[in-house]
Input
Amino acid sequence: MFIKNRLGLIEGTETMLAQGQRLNQITNNLANVDTPGYKKEDITFWEMLYTTNQNRQRVGKGLKILTNHQEGSVKNTGNQLDFAISGNGFFKLQTPQGVRYSRAGNFLLNSEGQLINPDGHLVLGDGGPIVINGNEVSVATDGSLRVDGVNAGRFDIATFANLTDIEKEGTNLFRLKNEGAEEQPATDFTVRQGFLESSNVSLVSEMTTMLDLHRAYETQQKVIRTFDEIDAKAISTVGKLTS
Output
């Protein structure tokens, strides 16, 4: 009885910890519901068998964070330095840590006329950092830029054979996570000027999941309390028998 109750307490505690991590993930998604290009994260649970001794196996819980790369809706901003990618592809950014990838196209100009993201990272084109020397910027659907009617290069849009080859870094950046993984030029995309891709977070869906998790968390608290009461009763009973 004691062993079974102890395993029940362990399982209940592990479940509460997992639900707590999922709740943190939902909170982060909700905090970025208005962040351009943000991709929500989900946590999946799976079960794995492992041996605690030679005779007994118990079920443990594993957590895996998955990024949902579903395309967000596109909204019109009218800003000539806002860009949205429809289809496959990521903007390439030069950061101090190396090249990073992002779906967020809310760009600015630095003092040198270079196109940057809000964190100051340079936006890369096919010839290096994109420089805007002029006033009127126009972009073709293939990402080619013209400034005051003069060719200014082309966005270097990258994609990947498998999106599991990249992992999120911070809020809106992605990096290659597998040693053998490589980027490749994107082909199935269009670039829209004056638009931004919205976050793919559904406010209603995340709030509903949060409420469900809260109820499940309370249920696990009751389960743990029940096992604790059973253990206390068993100890009390054994004490009476030995006396």
About this structure: The longest strand covers residues 41-51.
